[in-house]
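Supplementary Methods, section 5.1.

A reviewer requested that the exact input to the structure prediction be made available. We therefore reproduce it here, unchanged from the version used in the analyses.
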Amino acid sequence: MAATSVVVLFAVVALTMVVQSQAQISCSTELGNLNVCAPFVVAGAANTNPSPECCGALQAVEHDCICNTLRVAARLPSLCNLSPVTCNVN
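The structure derived from this sequence is encoded cell-by-cell as follows.
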C-alpha cells in the first residue's frame, strides 16, 4: 500500500511538472508573438493604433501569462540593485 502511494505521488508530481513546463513554453511563445505589436508601443511612434495582427496576437496571450510577466519585470530593477521604476499607467 505504501509503495503504491509513493508511485501515485511521484506520478502526480511528474505530471504537474510537465504541465507547468508546457505552460511556461506556451507563455514564452505567446509573448514572442507580441513582437508584431512593437511598432505601436515604442515611445514617439508615428502610429499608435495597433494592427489587426497585433490585436490577434494580444488576444491569444493568456491573462495569467501577461500578469506574471509584468510582475517579474517590475521586480527586475530591485534584483539588479537599481532604483524602482515608477510609471503612471492608466
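The two ends are 57 Å apart (CA to CA). These observations are discussed further in the main text.
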